[in-house]
Every structure is written in structure tokens, then in C-alpha cells.
Amino acid sequence: MRKFAKKKGGLCLATEYINRQDPLEWQCKEGHKWKASVKVILKGTWCRTCNTPGRKRVIPS
């Protein structure tokens, strides 16, 4: 899974793999962290924060 994450520019932070359904911790190249199963990641899902269109931080004035 580490090789797969590296191809995406990210990291697999998990130290233990149990099965495809068990959630592992991931980190994208922007530093966002989340948990997802290997099954979901292999289907092509990656960082939700980076993939949300129009998602921006609003700084109040």
C-alpha cells in the first residue's frame, strides 16, 4: 500500500495491515490525514479535502 500511496504523492501511515475492509490511515501530499479501507483506496478514492471542488478556507475580516 505504501507504493500505491507514493504514486499518488502521499503516504500510508498504517503500521499494520489486517484485511481490505479494515481502515488504514493515509496522508496526501498536502498533509491532510484520513482513514479509509484498502478496498476504497484501490477503487480510486483519495483525499476528500483535496478533491472537493471550490473548497477554500475563508478568513473572516
Uncertain regions spanning at least 5 consecutive residues = none
Number of separate strands: 3
Computed Rg: 13 Å
Kindly report how far apart the N and C termini lie. 43 Å
**How many helices?**
3
How much is the average pLDDT? 89
Structural class: alpha+beta
How does the overall form come out from the CA principal axes?
Answer: elongated
Strand % is 15-25%
Major beta sheet, specifics?
3 strands, antiparallel
**What is the helix content?**
10-25%
Order of helices and strands: HEEEHH
- Please indicate the count of domains: 1
Q: Strands of the largest sheet, in order across it?
A: 1-2-3
Protein name: 15731_t:CDS:1
Can you walk me through this structure?
With 61 residues, this protein is α+β, with helices and mostly antiparallel strands. The protein has one domain (2-51). The chain contains three helices and three strands, in the order H-E-E-E-H-H. It has helices at 2-7, 38-42, 48-51, and strands at residues 11-12, 23-27, 33-37. The N and C termini lie far apart (43 Å).
Which key terms come to mind for this protein?
elongated, alpha+beta, 3 helices, 61 residues
What can be said about this structure in brief?
A 3-stranded antiparallel β-sheet has the order 1-2-3. It has helices at residues 2-7, 38-42, 48-51; strands at residues 11-12, 23-27, 33-37.
